[in-house]
Structure formats: C-alpha cells, structure tokens
C-alpha cells in the first residue's frame, strides 16, 4: 500500500503515524492533517483519481459534496474507490 504524496507514492509503513498520546485530541486539527503526505485537502473525485496509479495507493481529502467530512480515496483492483469517513459518534 502507498499513500499518494504530492511527488510520489510512499509505503504506508513509512508514513504510519505514532499512536496519539492520551492528551491528544481524537480528531486531528487541519494543521496536523496538512503535515501528512496522504492528506490533500479539498479535492474533487476526478482530481483524486488522477493521483492514484497502483493498487494500494490512497489519499484522504475533504468532501466537496459533504462539507466537514473526509473521503478516503484508494485504488483497488485497478479501480478507484471513494469511502466517506463517518464518525460513529457524529462528532
């Protein structure tokens, strides 16, 4: 698996974040997300798909149709998949 960085795909093992400390907020701040190579901010489905080339490539983006929500976009079996990330507690 690889996260789509701006310049190239990376192995997820290289980008896996450390577990949060007990004092860390559950939801990351926008500044924290911007530091991650897999986060691409506001982006359309079509633009996200253009960045994915290999099975396992993925990125997280802001949803355009559901403001305030995030979408996990990944390549699986040669096809792009878009998964709306939903907080079960509605936060």
Task: Describe the fold and architecture.
This protein is α/β, with parallel strands linked by helices. It has a domain at 30-85: SH2 domain (SHC Adaptor Protein, 2-Layer Sandwich). It has helices spanning 12-15, 30-34, 45-51; strands at 2-4, 9-11, 39-42, 57-62, 70-76, 79-85. The protein is globular, with a radius of gyration of 13 Å.
Q: Specify the CATH homologous superfamily of the domain at 30-85.
A: SH2 domain
What's the quaternary structure here? single chain
> Could you tell me the number of beta strands?
6
Order of H and E elements: EEHHEHEEE
Distance between the termini: 28 Å
SS-derived structural category: alpha/beta
Average of pLDDT? 81
Q: What name does the CATH topology of the domain at 30-85 carry?
A: SHC Adaptor Protein
List key phrases describing it.
single chain, about 90 residues, alpha/beta, SHC Adaptor Protein, six-stranded mixed β-sheet, 3 helices
Structure in a nutshell:
The chain is an alpha/beta fold and 91 residues long.
Question: Layout of helices and strands, plus pairs?
Answer:
Blueprint: E1 2-4, E2 9-11, H1 12-15, H2 30-34, E3 39-42, H3 45-51, E4 57-62, E5 70-76, E6 79-85
Parallel strand pairs: 1-4, 3-4
Antiparallel strand pairs: 1-2, 4-5, 5-6
């Amino acid at each position: 698996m690889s996260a789509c960085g701006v310049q190239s795909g990376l192995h997820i093992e290289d980008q896996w974040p450390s577990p949060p400390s007990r004092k860390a907020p559950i939801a990351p701040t926008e500044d924290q997300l911007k530091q991650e190579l897999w986060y691409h901010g506001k982006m359309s489905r079509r633009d996200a798909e253009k960045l994915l080339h290999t099975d396992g490539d993925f990125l997280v983006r802001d949803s355009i149709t559901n403001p305030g929500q995030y979408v996990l976009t990944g390549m699986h079996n040669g096809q792009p998949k878009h998964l709306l990330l939903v907080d079960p507690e509605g936060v």
